[in-house]
Every structure is written in C-alpha cells, then in structure tokens.
Design a protein that fits this description.
Elements (H helix, E strand, L loop, with lengths): L2 H8 L6 E8 L2 E13 L4 E8 L9 E4 L5 E4 L1
Antiparallel strand pairs: 1-2, 1-5, 2-3, 3-4
Length: 74
Amino acid sequence: MTAAQKCRKNGWGVGTRLRGTEEKGTQWEDTTVIEITAIGREMVLAVKVSSSRYDQVSDMEGSWDLDGRFWRRV
C-alpha cells in the first residue's frame, strides 16, 4: 500500500498531524510528529514538527513513505 493510499484509507488529509513511533530493538526509541502538506497519487509530502531523536527540526517539506513506523493521528 502506498503512503497516499494509507492516508486515504485512514482519513488523514492535508493538515493532519501524525505521531510515528519507530521500534529499535526491544524499546520504542524514536518518535516523530509530522504534518501532512500534500497527498499525491502515491506519495505524501509533510513537514517534521518534532522528533525525540533530534533537537532541531526543519520546516522543509519532504516526502514520507509512512512505512517502518506505527503512525497515529495526534
């Protein structure tokens, strides 16, 4: 399933904030919050709002595949 299909299936649209948690070993180590800025045919563009791993986040928009993390609406 593409990132765009996942968004449509879950009712996530432009402006939706998602918290994604990535499992590292036996612990949940990295949590990131993104805000969806565009949904294409297959890809999703978003801005990283916060990250438990990095102190600074950029307001640069980038593509996200939404795989490898457990995503839920904030």
